[in-house]
Amino acid sequence: MELKVATEIGKCLSNQTRLQIMEWLKKPENNFPPHETLKHFNDGVCVTYIQEKSGLSQSTISTYLTNMEKCGLLISTRHGKWSYLKRNEQLIKEYSEYILK
Amino acid sequence: MELKVATEIGKCLSNQTRLQIMEWLKKPENNFPPHETLKHFNDGVCVTYIQEKSGLSQSTISTYLTNMEKCGLLISTRHGKWSYLKRNEQLIKEYSEYILK
DNA sequence: CAAATATATCTATAATTCTCGATATATAAA
DNA sequence: TTTATATATCGAGAATTATAGATATATTTG
Fold this sequence. Notes:
The structure is a homodimer of 101-residue chains. Chain A has 6 helices and 3 strands; from the N terminus they run H-H-H-E-H-H-E-E-H. The first copy, chain A, has 101 residues and is an alpha+beta fold. In chain A, helix 4 crosses helix 5. The longest helix of chain A has 13 residues. Chain A binds a DNA duplex (30 and 30 nucleotides) through helix 4 and helix 5. Chains A, B: Keywords: DNA-binding, Transcription, Transcription regulation. Chains A, B: InterPro entries: ArsR-like_HTH, HTH_ArsR_DNA-bd_dom, HTH_MetalResp_TranReg, WH-like_DNA-bd_sf, WH_DNA-bd_sf. Chains A, B: GO terms for molecular function: DNA binding; DNA-binding transcription factor activity. Chains A, B: This is ArsR family transcriptional regulator.
């Protein structure tokens, strides 16, 4: 992994709310209600649920999630009018190996 | 690992120079000259060498290293008038496991 | 003890990030 | 096609971080 990419990932992980979101998404079914339309968590959780649980504004959370997707930490999938976010375990693994010896 | 601690670690890793320092310290002998007084790298590298290699000011690097030690990423050892810094592999492992699934 | 060297801390300004409300866009529902 | 809902983007002010020079402290050396 390149230093610049790793720095961008670090920036996403340098904020308590964003780190908390990463934690919540480890086990979405333990932290969020099942979506009324989509009944599974295969693609993660919709923006609204994450926003409500965080307590921050819609625009702030949307920006967070967009940046987290841009640096690769999250994978976004559209289903109709909803965007679902899930962890990108592959990238997270690469990052954790990068900072490890 | 607690969310707050992990956030502080993330802050340290959210800056290119600081992340670079973490990388340099993986193999100090590849990145720094051996110290004229202390001849080994057992306790890492002195502040001056890190400062010179980084190109930033003494005060900036001193602040960086102090914060990196405070959150546990680095271990500092005094030998006379020099402070030597090395990675805290144990803490780094805990952090990398925390962000992993 | 005085001078030199290494590191830490203080203070201030510049740069970046945080955060929101307003607004735009996309999609679905009526 | 109008309205409602979900998400994204824009613009701005507040808060935090970056960074350096000046200065303080700690330690060694003469």
